[in-house]
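Hey, I'm writing a tutorial for new members on how sequence and structure tokens pair up, and I'd like a real worked example in the thread rather than a made-up one. If someone can provide the structure for the chain below, I'll link this post from the tutorial.
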Amino acid sequence: KKSIKIRLVDMGGHQEYYACSSLFFSTSGLFLICFDSLLLKKLENNGNDYYGTVGTFVDLVSQTSSMSGMKLKIALVATKTEASKQPQNLKESCKKLLEMTKDHLGTLSPELFLLNEVITTSSQEVTSEILENLRTKIATLCSDGKLKEGSEEMRPFSWHKFLDAAS
């Protein structure tokens, strides 16, 4: 097994971090767009909540990807899924959100890769199988040769802009 190094940056959805977020982007970027699973219930009734909670961050990653030429990766993560009393509704809602995100990405940068599922998590229901599954998905997204751009090196996006300007 090969080990990979990861750096996690939690922006918490705060607007203050949104403005400086490109400082955290790198050439091997995997973006976990996490949201409270209660959003899924709102999406069933009204798709307008999509943009404010997920779509804004999809746009941010897309803009960075198109400006840099990097092939960035996105995975959607629904948190607090223990709140869902009906697992079947959760699966259907995740499928709907995934389709909304695919439609959204269809209007944006073609350089993005979207994991074809919504990862679901719960701090109340943690098993070694769930953690191993999550580890495998993240490791694959970070290390798969077809999804990687260039070398193993990671550089902040702002450095790419500087190097391009200096060349």
